[in-house]
Amino acid sequence: MAHRITVIGAGTMGLGIAQVTAIHGIQTVLCDLSPEQLTTACRQIEASVEKGIEKGKNPVEARDLLKSCLSTSTEVAEACQGSDFIIEAVPEVMQIKTKIFEEVEQVISEHAILATNTSSLPITKLSSGLTHPQRFVGMHFFNPVPIMALVEVVRGDQSSEATIDAAVELATKLGKEPIVVKDSPGFATSRLGLVLGLEAIRMLETGVASAQEIDKAMELGYRHPMGPLRLTDLVGLDVRLAIAEYLHSMIGEQFRPPELLRQLVSEGHLGKKTGRGFHDWS
Fold it and tell me: SS3 sequence, 156-168?
């Protein structure tokens, strides 16, 4: 069982993961090269925990656990020393991730597990430069991490059973529902979710219905908690575009990005984080 966790990357996913591990009583180091980003992330985490307490979704004890269990660092090697679980949550760029993994592997113990929060990049390829790829695993959390129940545990070609078991155990301790999937393009969730999202964009592009109507159709007709276009706004249009381009190259035409998606990304309309995507978030 993990007693100390390092989360690398203080963006939306990283801060969410760090929040959940800390309030479950695990000593957590949130690491990012930017001190400003760490300051912002800690404010967001504190606000999220307080909101959860107000709504009865977090116990009151979560406030004290956060204070006693969460720390920050701008030094990757320092942050990872002594941790038995390292979860990377930096942008979806293969070269950035692999450079971090190779650096981190030099300073962690022989029992520590290295996990990536990637939503689509191949686990086996990400671990190909490691000395001990058997200790590498995918742990795909979902946004917003404190609320979403699923964790997709992705088995690389060389991931050991002990590593998979440890990832499943950690996800369960965090109150999540883990599923174990094979390392294949898009895994299970990104592949299925993206097909629906891209088709919704094509429908909007050809004037089948408005964004509000398309989302309402899936929310009321199929009981989806959130429509595919609203979900794309939440994930980030740039993130969805990158995944679509990758799956298009690996699987085929059903993942070709619609021109509307490319256009919005080129104009800087990336969804909720910029105030506008398929919906107006201002």
Answer: CCCCCHHHHHHHH
